[in-house]
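Troubleshooting log. The previous structure file for this entry was overwritten by mistake, so regenerating from the original sequence record. Sequence copied from the archived sheet and checked twice against the printout by T.R.
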Amino acid sequence: MSIKLGDIAPDFEQASSQGTIRFHDWIGDSWAVLFSHPADFTPVCTTELGLTAKLKEEFSKRNVKAIALSVDPVDSHLKWIEDINDTQNTEVNFPIIADADRKVSDLYDLIHPNANDTLTVRSLFVIDPQKKVRLIITYPASTGRNFDEILRVIDSLQLTDQHKVATPGNWKQGDDVVIVPSLQDEEEIRQRFPGGYKAVRPYLRLTAQPNA
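Regenerated output below.
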């Protein structure tokens, strides 16, 4: 199946390094980042999982849970985690799904014959508390993920869910935002954005980040 933005993330039950995961139950009322790896003991992925562990506080303050996936079995995951902890100077604090039967990989369309017909591609999904897929990024094997960008997108999604704004290119926390074009009522604009706004063009109105 091909997953698109706005789809409900497929639910599953699968073994992991922290026991059996029932995915939707595991997410609960949180956001989730699900990211896949082609195999255990791969160098780029080792650095990524170490970085994810170190970012636990950043994920937690955004109400985000992280979960990884590899097609290797649990006993391999546990040995890999020892290597990650040792080489990355951290403690892996999130589950790694053991997808030896490719069940989750098939659900999330992670087996791409054009890349490899047995190994999962390196895709990442951001899923909101309503279990909707809000972001999909697929990386080549040679390029490590930019977790600063992933956190930035989560910040944008959470902000724009709460306010009638969008975030411009290269936006980061504290920068000005864009008032969405659908908001035209001036009284509502004054109530929502008491500091006012700058109309660069009628369709491009910049205002201070509402929750900054």
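The domain at 13-144 is CATH 3.40.30.10 (Glutaredoxin). Archived copy saved in two places this time.
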